[in-house]
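Appendix B, Record 12. Input sequence as logged:
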Amino acid sequence: DMPGLKKFKRLEPMPELPEVETIRQQLITALPLTIERVQFSSVADSIIKKVDRKITLTGQTIVQIHRMGKWLEMILDNDDRILSHLGMSGSWRLWQSEQAIKHAHVLFHGKNSKNNPMIFAYVDPRRFGKMYFMTSAQACEFRAKLGVDVSSSEFTIDYIAQTLRKYPARAIKAFLLDQQFFAGVGNYIACEICAHARIRPTRKAKSITLEEVTKIHAATKVVIAGQLPKGGLTFQGGYLDAFGEKGQGLESLVVFHQKICGLCQRGKIKKIVLAQRSTFYCPACQK
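Logged structural output:
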């Protein structure tokens, strides 16, 4: 399959920006989707956080899907929203007909613009995902709590510099993981950003120079641009996209779960635990 895949056996990283964006881009190919019937599994309650509004879904049309960090926002024609976070192992699948797949917890049965039957199925083996049905005003409030999406035009060098000043003693990698500031970044992306910026993940925010802030900004763009065309990252038993396919992003990784640094080709990767997360860096080229 892929060299070095064995070492990913016990590893199931959460979907991060590239994985969520890949699913978004695939789902919008089926829009507009008019929902004729909503089906929930017997344990869907653990995922759905606001059940009181589910009645309004039937007869509504999903007209657009946005992404906010690691959240998907489905917009209905009455302006209500379905917010979905994939948790550890969630994904939305696009089915032409119902499939006997385990762990499908929420199914929107409907028709697309060509009047063809189509199902949006939320599949989540570990059920750490979250789903909210809310009004556009509630969604707006929710969005205000998230930081700037790292793929948006608001994610500037200046924004990073100002953000790092807020908690000078915090380790740079822990900062990158904080969705209040860097929406869309997860564990593997944070490790990879630090590597491409040549910054040790344990460095305190106050020690990061403006030149290094510029490098963090550039590194973020490089890492995300490297993953998106490949559909993100799949580990064994891990993430699948809307068509049930694996992401091909493993070969882009330079430090995350690697043995030798993919940038300098000589440093032995060191693994530590930082802010409760496995963290990988190259002592040779990250200072």
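The longest helix spans residues 210-227.
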